[in-house]
Design a protein that fits this description.
This protein is mostly helical and 88 residues long. It folds into 2 domains: 57 residues; 31 residues, no CATH class. Helix content is 85%, strand content 0%.
Length: 88
Amino acid sequence: MGIETIEQKIAKQEERLKQLKAQKQSVLAREKKKLSEQQRKDDTRRKILLGSYLLKKMENEANKEKILADLNEYLTEDRDRKLFLLGE
């Protein structure tokens, strides 16, 4: 077996290793993206459920006044405040 054929085998294996590393990176990137998307979906769902809960609580007038007072202090953007008829 000549040195040239051994060198060719090494080069072939190095290329294969490079391909496998690229494949691994691709898999890791997909998993990271999937996790990130799920976290975003979970965050959105939490916000929707909290909003639904607060709307239900606001059916009671005393709760409504307290929640709106809290929102009045919390919200700073005019467009957000207009949604709740605050500061008009």
